[in-house]
Amino acid sequence: MEYEVVIGLEIHAELATKSKIYCGCTTEFGGEPNTHCCPGCIGMPGALPVLNKAVVEYAIKAGLATNCEISHYSRQDRKHYFYPDLAKAYQISQCDYPLCRNGYLEIEVNGEKKKIGITRIHIEEDAGKLIHDEYGRGTFVDYNRSGVPLIEIVTEPDMRSSAEVKAFFEKLKAILEYTAVSDCKMQEGSLRADINLSVRPKGQKEFGVRTEMKNLNSIRAIVRAVEFEAKRQILELEYGGVIERETRRWDDVKGESYSMRTKEEATDYRYMPDPDLYPIYVDQEWIEQIRATIPELPDDRKKRFISELGIPEYDASIITASKPLADFFEAAAKESKNAKAISNWVMGDLMKKLNDTGLEPSDIPFAPGNLARLVSLIDENVISGKIAKQVFDIMWETGEDPADIVEKKGLKVVTDTDAIRSVIIQVISANPKSVEDYKSGKTKAMGFLIGQIMRETKGKADPQAVNRLLKEELDKL
Amino acid sequence: MAITKEDIERLADLARLNLTPEEIEKLTGDMETIINYSMNKLNELNTDDVQPMEHVLPVRNVFREDICEQSFDREDILKNAPEKAEGCFLVPKVVE
Questions:
Q1: A with B: how many residue pairs have Cβ under 8 Å apart?
Q2: Residues of B with CB below 8 A from A278's CB?
Q3: Which helix (H) or strand (E) covers residue A164, if one does?
């Protein structure tokens, strides 16, 4: 039987505020355990929360950038659960009156455009970190993260494949980066996704029973988890099994999801309005003030790169998906006036370096101007394209200016015809067989001889001069 | 409205309270009395045009600016911890 996979996401993003959501402790990542804490964020009786205004503004900004309606009236609620990651035994969140509703993002997969609905965006506090002691002493609790502000973005079950999930997630991540709502550092847990997934026979209207996988913290893990879980559910049904409504844990090392304990009864969070906090009223004027701070978003930037800088659509979508990469590209392209060449370097050597080293685009170890000057050196025929790759590698290691590298390492193109001619004569006399082949009409032999000459000159000879002079010398014979 | 023993047991479980059978018995009766009294009172009133109360004070938009303040010394933070180790609160092992 043919099945359809139905996926919805709940995405948590830590906001880029300096201080926590309800107290003045820092949100900085890391730090010795329990050093970013005060009576408020460790749940001491009597400590009262006061809402950080920037949290509301960031959440509204995220809502506006994802086409949401902004609620004029919004409220904060307590969600009760017993788990030591939150000391109060409840999390302050939003239940019935979230700040943003009914948004969407448009994604494109295989040339097909599709809208993915966003049900809501609400604000809440992050929980502390638990470390389970391997020697069995118990569980260590670090409350540094407790009270770091989050937005939770809940989508409609509109996605139908891992490719759509990836496209949506990448787009949302780019928007959160562009608007600087979150730093989106997935390796630090700033952005993480829960996946709700079910399958149903194609054509069936009702949804199947869904499972939830929590806290996926890389795009690769999200894609793999979706693919594994879809396959697992389909196999289960094919063999006459049933899908349990449950939370499953994704094991990224094994590449499998497995069942955590099944919920015997539906969890009861006993939501109630938090009496310590006041309602939030957002008027149109405030919304417009926030709207005015939204910068150019990825889609617009992509269009501009295509029309203004003339780079291919494919390159533009890859480059604009990451704000730091797009910033780097744009700065380099503006300085070099050869945007296409810059785009080729970014899409090729630069991306490869980032992949190989696992660095983020924000960590590129040289300035955009250096890439621009590297391209100029090629365009002005100071170095060959092949040598440029060497220079690029050195730039990556040292961050030096390409012109200095070329000067220091003596990598300039040799245009001195006498020098080139003497190498040519040497190569010709060392390869009589190839010369004979050439004379008997095998033009391929010419390529071999050029290769030898370039090798002798360590790639520095001006290829046009080599071509011309080699022809001259061969014709003399 | 009838309150059953099961209602009380479930509430006690959610609130992590250990109740004896006698306490459950007593609370079942008490709770029923309280709920029914309040419901009867409410039913005497016409609340059709009354908005649910969102807060006891007519105050809205109470914010703080996004400014960092000095956190507490860790020693003070951990002072009330029943057990601590390596700068952390130590609690019985929990795995969700």
A1: 126
A2: 55, 57, 59-62
A3: helix A162-178
Mutate to test the interface with A, among B66, B67, B83, B93 (most CBs of A within 10 A): B66
CA–CA dist A413, A436 (Å, integer): 29
Q: What is the CA radius of gyration of chain B?
A: 23
Question: Hey, which residues does A251 pair with through a beta bridge?
Answer: A256
Sort out which chain A residues have CB atoms less than 8 A from B62's CB and list them.
50-51, 277-278
Chain A residue closest in CA terms to B59:
A278
Residues of chain A with CATH 1.10.10.410: 417-476
Contact A278, B59 (CB under 8 A): yes
- Tokens 């199947």 locate to A208
Measured distance CA(A154)–CA(A171) in Å, rounded = 15
What does the pLDDT profile of chain A (477 residues) look like in tens digits? 899 999 999 999 999 999 999 999 999 998 999 999 999 999 999 999 999 999 999 999 999 999 999 999 999 999 998 889 999 999 999 999 999 999 999 999 988 999 999 999 999 999 999 998 778 789 999 999 999 999 999 999 999 999 999 999 999 999 999 999 999 988 889 999 999 999 999 999 999 999 999 989 999 999 999 999 999 999 999 998 899 888 898 988 888 888 876 554 567 889 999 999 999 999 999 999 999 999 999 999 999 999 999 999 999 999 999 999 999 999 999 998 899 999 999 999 999 999 898 888 888 999 999 999 999 998 988 888 888 998 999 999 999 999 899 888 877 777 777 888 888 888 888 888 888 888 888 878 888 888 888 888 887 787 878 888 888 888 887
> Domain A417-476, what architecture?
Orthogonal Bundle (1.10)
Asked whether residue B52 is domain-assigned, the answer is no
Specify the CATH number for the domain of residue B2: 1.10.20.60
Choosing among A15, A18, A34, which should be mutated to test the B contact, i.e. which has the most B CBs within 10 A?
A34
Q: Do B66 and A52 touch (CB under 8 A)?
A: yes
Task: Select from A316, A302, A311 the least CA-distant residue to A336.
Answer: A311
- For residue B23, the enclosing domain spans 1-46
Which residue from A331, A271, A261, A321 is spatially nearest to A297, judged by alpha carbons?
A321
In a domain, B78, yes or no: no
Q: What DSSP line would sit under A226-292, residue for residue?
A: HHHHHHHHHHHHHTT-----EEEEEETTTTEEEE-PPPSS------EE-TTS--EE--HHHHHHHHT
Check if the beta carbon of residue A191 is closer than 8 Å to that of residue A11: yes
Torsion of CA A216, A217, A219, A220, to 10 degrees: -80
How far is residue A43's CA from residue B4's CA, in Å, rounded to a whole number?
33
Task: Give which of B56, B61, B83 to mutate to test A binding, by max A Cβ within 10 Å.
Answer: B61
Total domains in the fold of chain B: 1
Of A26, A44, A140, the CB nearest to B85: A140
Residue in this structure with the two tokens 């054509």, named with its chain if needed? A203
Residue A161 structure tokens = 């494949």
In this structure, what token pair is assigned to residue A152?
A: 């939770």
